[in-house]
Amino acid sequence: MLKFIRSLYFGRRLFYALSAISILFLVSFWFEPLYRITWTLAAILSVLLLTDLVTLFKGPSIGAERNLPEKFSNSDENIVKVSIKNNYGFKVFSEVIDEIPVQFQKRDFLRAAEIPTQAKIDFEYYLKPLQRGEYVFGNLNIFISTFLKLVKRRFVFNKDQVVKVYPSFIQMKKLDFLALDQKISLHGIKRIRRIGHTMEFEQIKEYVRGDDVRTINWKATAKHGNLMVNQFQDERSQPVYSVIDCGRMMKMPFEGLSLLDYAINSSLAFSNVALKKKDKVGMLSFSNKIDNVQKASSKLSQLNKIMEALYNVNTGFYDSDFSLLYSRVKKHISHRSLLMLYTNFEHTSGLQRQLPFLKALAKQHLLVVIFFENTEVTQLIKMIPKNVSESAHQTVAEQFSHNKQLMAKELQRHGIQTLLTRPSDLSINTINKYLEIKSRGLL
Fold first, then answer.
1. Confidence of residue 255 (pLDDT cuts 50, 70, 90)
2. Averaging pLDDT over each range in 109-118, 310-319, 382-391, which range is the top one?
3. Statement: 62-166 belongs to CATH 3.90.550.10
4. 3-state SS assignment for residue 135
5. Which of 133, 212, 268, 412 is the most buried (most CB within 10 A)?
6. Rounded CA separation 222/107 (Å)
């Protein structure tokens, strides 16, 4: 009985009909002939209500399923599929209310559809998470009614499904092609001019128009009677590390996503490209302590290890300890490596405090400091001021933007590779920087 009561709901038509009958009873106080007609209508409504109840609750039920992917990709649109099967012998009308995880703060989800006799329908919707972690889906509630729509029967499916949100593997797959051909020209992707070539020998091949005449192998030419050239390839198996600052400065949000999550998504995409380039990849995260360390490796399983490590990276409100980073890198990374350091500086004084440790790291490794433009400040600079107050704000914003440029030049002056980028362009610019370093043979 309790199960029946919990699954029983009344439709709007019933309440409209009851409201109309109540008004007719009120009017019949002055027009007595209307009294009997109103009782007749009430009896008809009672019969229809009972018929609707018996039809819905005595007949067969429906089947439904919510299909979730194995994991969600952070900051991307993820698909959720819902299937509903009508086992009744007549057409039914359905209303689907899915209890979406609390992180989305979405409580107005409703999908209505007609389901023909013994038919199955499918629909899908998309969710865009902005935080990593576990997301719990509640009940998949389906309300079924007949063409009368006086009564609804509630069905509950897929209670408490859990899906984990990982760093953006969708973005990683989109940028995967950069490992194959860096000459592809797309919007937002910078073409890199190859200044020279590394000296890792690959093969001797026959000369074709366009080959560098400086690579002609004269001994092989004399032996074969045709011009032969040496072909070189980028050096492989070089250790490459993503070093992620988890301090309070990386807590800043842009477009709903923190700088830390931008750095994590970029690290995953960059590591994938580096692995395709046959380099060894690793990662390290730090704030006031060293949190996660993955030694560089070129194994195929390394990308999954890095993804799991990045999934567990979190930030607090601590100041980052660059001296601790320097001591740990010096102790555990003995070979000269490429260090892609994701961090952020909002003022030159913050950079000056950490500059001695950055210079020390750059002496032993090829260090690339990646920090962020403040896009909110950039928008403020572009707007036209309407009063003195807005002009003052714009002047301060221009000073902040200028300081960012000065910090980038200060790092370059000390021989440290620098990348100042907008958060939205971080992954593409980081990969381009890596490809540029590979092509120039700096490592």
1. confident
2. 109-118
3. no
4. strand
5. 268
6. 78
